[in-house]
Amino acid sequence: MGTRLSAGPAGRPLAGPPGWLPSRGFTTTPAGRLLLASGSGDRTVRLWDPAKGSCLATLQRGSVVRSVAAAGLTLAIGGDDGVSVIELDGGDLGDPRVRRRRKPR
């Protein structure tokens, strides 16, 4: 059975990975778009658009994900192999108001 989170249009559940879902957290992009990050026992972190009920991205991890914390486009991910902090690129999440940062030359 998949993990079911109540969100999306008319409270439609979000279908997630099978098994254990230990952690989730809400955040917003700089443009104000609401995101949900969920960590799972299947070694993934998924980023959701809860308003549309769709999964925007899946991040594969090296171990079971035990915790997720989100602030803006920064995610802290805790697992059996330690803690990782990653910065998301909003352009990859389909938000045209968040532009990719260019590296200085």
How does this model look, in words?
A four-stranded antiparallel beta sheet has the order 3-4-5-6, with no helix packed on it. A three-stranded antiparallel beta sheet has the order 7-8-9, with no helix packed on it. With 105 residues, it is mostly beta strands. The protein has no helices and nine strands. The N terminus and C terminus are likely disordered. The chain has a domain of 60 residues. A hairpin with a 4-residue loop joins strand 5 and strand 6.
Give the strand order of the largest sheet, numbering strands 1, 2, ... along the chain.
3-4-5-6
What composes the largest sheet? 4 strands, antiparallel
Round the Cα radius of gyration to an integer and report it. Answer: 14 Å
What's the rounded overall pLDDT mean? 75
Helix content: under 10%
Structural class: mainly beta
**What sequence of helices (H) and strands (E) makes up the elements?**
EEEEEEEEE
Query: What fraction of the residues are assigned to beta strands by DSSP?
Result: over 45%
Structure in a nutshell:
The chain is built from no helices and 9 strands. With 105 residues, it is mostly beta strands.
Give the secondary structure arrangement, pairings included.
Elements: E1 2-6, E2 13-18, E3 23-28, E4 34-39, E5 44-49, E6 54-60, E7 65-71, E8 74-79, E9 82-87
Antiparallel strand pairs: 1-2, 3-4, 4-5, 5-6, 7-8, 8-9
